[in-house]
Amino acid sequence: MSQRVFIRDLQAQIGNEVTIKGWVDVRRDQGKLIFFDFRDMTGKVQGVILPSAPEAHAVGSTVRPEWVVEVKGKVNQRPERAIQKDKQNGDIELEILSMSVLAEAETPPFDIHADTREVNEETRLKYRYVDLRGDRLQKNIRNRAKIISYIRNFLSGTDFTEIETPLLTKSTPEGARDYIVPSRLGAGLFYALPQSPQQYKQLLMAGGIERYFQIAKCMRDEDTRGDRQPEFTQLDMELSFATEEDIMAITEQLLIEIVTKLYPHKKIQTIPFPRIPYAEAMAKYNIDRPDIRENKEDPNLLAFCWVVDFPFFEKNEKQNGTGGGLSQWTFTHNPFSAAKPAHHEKLMSSKASDADLQTITAAQYDIVLNGYEIGGGSVRNHKAESLLKVFEIMGYDSETVEKNFSHMLHAFRSGTPPHGGIAWGLDRLIMLLENEPNIREVIAFPKTGEGRDPMMESPSEVNPEQLRELGLIVNKK
Ligand code: ASP
Hints:
Layout: E1 17-29, E2 34-40, E3 43-49, H1 54-60, E4 68-77, E5 92-103, H2 121-126, H3 128-131, H4 135-156, E6 161-162, E7 180-182, E8 190-192, H5 198-206, E9 211-219, E10 231-240, H6 244-262, E11 267-268, E12 275-277, H7 278-285, E13 301-302, E14 304-308, E15 313-315, E16 329-331, H8 344-349, E17 364-369, E18 372-379, H9 384-393, H10 398-412, E19 419-425, H11 426-433, H12 464-470
Parallel strand pairs: 3-5, 6-9, 11-13, 12-14
Antiparallel strand pairs: 1-2, 1-4, 2-3, 4-5, 7-8, 9-10, 10-19, 14-17, 15-16, 17-18, 18-19
Helix pairs in contact: 9-10
């Protein structure tokens, strides 16, 4: 059997007999002639069965779109009048000599050549493997991989170490609801899935790693919306001995490189990225993620900006709720942030009852693109007493903090360097680079707006034996 040639490479095979493998994209039966478009992961090409190939004709008249075939044929240059200039392989045609069927296909549940964003979401996600075959999702998913690979190369080349942190972990005060996982060996005990690797990455700084990154899955049990999913992907980073400036500079350089190398047709509105203090953003745009694009009609304009100088604390709306302690105050970003150096003393001498707590500024920064928050981070408190102070202001007694964060406190008492970091919401960034309206378009297997996966039919019930082993009784409302 001759070796398979990728459709992309057929240009170099004019005059040769080749074998291609892939899907029937389109079939046009004109009786004597049967035309096809074939598709593989590298592209599309037109093929034709001439009356001089009766065996191929017999097979070709049975195959249907989405069947998987192996085709042997001769690569011919098209005559001048038949050349389609703007089309991949528009100047060649495969004269089909033989065709065999590798897999048949039922009629697809929707037309993958149309804009599948119009298709009912339940149906699209149920048959996501069919949806993924379309040009747009193929492009999005492959470009996603290119971005991630660019990030990996960039960071690995600048002394960052990629480290995986656990998925089975402990409930953390990141501000959202946890997904919890029952423990079989410890009945009544639960792991939590990470809302982010925040504590682990800080513990890696305690562990002398100095520069960490991870393409990290984060799970937050929140109501989903367009730019949110129950599980999403972060580019997570942490750096020792780094200031706000250092972390912002690396982020900015990497973002600029991703755009200029992978999306050269796009224009970054302003470099260096403008910095907008939180108070100014609220006063001028009434939002902490302003869309500063000069021209909102231009799909290729990328207006990055930083929002800086966030207040450390804000009034706790959900008293005693997620993340909040017993006081009226909660953190704006996460409890591990440090105050700006000039505000550190004020933080350390503050009490929860102080009215001017809101005037303490955090060493925190958000990166915003076209009105979406695509990342955020902070320089951290790396001393136990500062972390205790933050929790005290939020109304946690020191016993509770010692119990829940003894590992952090002990790490900070064991020689942890000053450190800080950032996490990017990768799905959102890719969504914007790909001009998609929704992160579901750049995730291979996303969930519905209600957090369900119609393809796997999850979440689903488990069998009674599993529940018994876990010591769980389900109380259906
Ligand atoms: N863990 C934070 C988040 O998920 C990011 C950071 O501070 O590095 O928002």
